[in-house]
Write a structure and sequence with these properties.
single chain, globular, 4-stranded mixed beta sheet, alpha+beta
């Protein structure tokens, strides 16, 4: 079986990124392992099954990488977070201080709202519509 297991997200600081993804977005910390070069292998994932994909949080190492923090997809929505309860997760995230860029919409494909993570990367919170 092939699947995308991890997507790398360049961040400014490991600990602030871990706090944001676990506390504000409700992800779980899967791994935080020091590496010999002083970096860390930090993986967070939505609190779902263990076979889903996760984010590898990689601290920027130089000016070029620091310049990409928060704009890894050129201002487009780059990540989609599925939910099975849109209202619950939208309210929990709003209460945790997550920045939403629009009001929730109900589209033929599901309920969706665009939000920003700690660094300004754009995400969709999406509850897909039931299959016909």
């Amino acid at each position: 079986m092939r699947r995308i297991a991890l997507v790398t997200l360049v961040v400014d600081d490991y600990d602030e990124a871990i706090r944001h993804y676990t506390q504000a977005l409700g992800f779980r910390l899967v791994e935080d392992t020091p590496r010999p070069d002083g970096s860390r292998w930090v993986v967070v994932a939505p609190d779902a099954g263990r076979d889903g994909s996760g984010l590898l949080l990689a601290r920027a190492k130089d000016d070029a990488q620091r310049g990409r923090v928060g704009d890894q997809t050129g201002g487009r929505v780059g990540f989609v977070l599925h939910t099975d309860d849109f209202a619950r997760d939208h309210e929990r995230m709003r209460a945790a201080g997550v920045t939403f860029l629009e009001e929730p919409r109900h589209e033929p494909y599901g309920s969706v709202v665009v939000f920003q993570d700690l660094y300004g990367n754009r995400w969709d919170l999406l509850q897909p519509a039931p299959a016909p």
